Amino acid sequence: MSSSLARRLRDPLALPVIVAPMFLVSGPELVVASCRAGVMGSIPTQNARTFEQLDAWIGQIKDGIADLPDPRWAVSMIVHKTYERFDAELALMTERRPDVVITALGSPARVADAVHGYGGAVFADVMSVEHARKAADAGADGLVLVCHGAGGHTGRYSAFAMVDEVRAFFDGPLVVGGAVSTGRGVLAVEALGADLAYMGTRYIACPESMVGARYRELLVQADITGVTATAAVTGVLCSWLSDSLAEAGYDAQALTAAGQVDFSDVHGENKPWKDIFGAGQGVGAIAAVETVEAVTQQLLGEYREALDGVSGRSAALSV
Ligand SMILES: Cc1cc2nc3c(=O)[nH]c(=O)nc-3n(C[C@H](O)[C@H](O)[C@H](O)COP(=O)(O)O)c2cc1C
Asked: Could you report the per-residue pLDDT of 68-117, keeping only the tens digit for each?
């Protein structure tokens, strides 16, 4: 049974999907296109190089969705004590009022009063049950469980186990990410007991994202065998396109074998995230570079088909 907040955020959407915030990928065009396609768009605020640029981007988002009857959009904010733009960004959010502020790298309590003050919701991005509990105790309205198979900073735990464990103590809105790349996956997230799917990788190749042509090309070519999860590049476990690791000079095989590679040069010519491309295990669903609208329509078709299949089996059970 969904909470009233979950219903408020999800019901206006064509599909229960948040296009997840992605470093160097998500910009205002992706957010606007997501909202216009009927899903929730988002950006990580740190994608804007300066505060002035962030202000302009948020203006662009607001203008781009102004004619929509009931759009939903979100930002993710770094809430760590060392993040120097924190106060200015929080003040901007109270003025511009995203429906959801997703907190990363710190306690959601830091933004709670300000966001609740304008009627917004605070969701915390978590990767373990322990973090989920802490975030819930700190007053997060919703939790984003980043599970195994996710692109970028990836979770270690299966969504199947995580949702059940978190649902044992949390009945607010739950969002689940990690290799959800089809409409069937979106329905599966709901079947697990969560409210919304968090989809990053599936939308990176869309022309509305900020990535370059080579990244798009590799996404179209890759499948599940083409991603490597390693902590070696940034110090935290991240899922990357293996071909981009190879092009940056890494031996993908060696990256998976602990202790065999010297990574001291990684911050030299080949800066992580700029030249090494993040992607999750669901990358095989990307067969072409298609617009956000086309991807979302495909997801909707897959979702409906899966729902029909499940409903058919449910009818069979009741005879
Ligand atoms: C290239 C890339 C960059 C990402 N950057 C961020 C980020 O800056 N902040 C964040 O909270 N999550 C980031 N993520 C994680 C996503 O928000 C989301 O958890 C993930 O994409 C979901 O898994 P999926 O890629 O399998 O759909 C990133 C993911 C990718 C693929």
From this structure: 999 999 999 999 888 899 999 999 999 999 999 999 888 999 999 999 99
* pLDDT, position 262: 40
Tokens of 33: 């296109």
**Strands 41-44 vs 73-78: parallel, antiparallel or unpaired:** parallel
Question: Is ligand 1 within 6 A of the CB of residue 203?
Answer: no
Question: pLDDT per residue over 218-265, tens digit each?
Answer: 999 999 999 999 988 888 899 999 999 999 888 766 676 544 334 344
Decide if 60 contacts 31 (C-beta within 8 A): no
Measured in Å, residue 198 CA sits from the centre of ligand 1 at: 9
In the chain, where the domains are located: 4-209
Cβ(299) – ligand 1 distance below 6 Å: no
CATH number for region 4-209: 3.20.20.70
Mean pLDDT computed over 165-173? 97
- Give the mutation target among 22, 127, 154 for probing the ligand 1 site: most ligand atoms within 8 A of CB: 22
Q: Is the CB of 219 under 6 A from ligand 1?
A: no
Q: CA 210, CA 228: separation in Å to the nearest integer?
A: 22
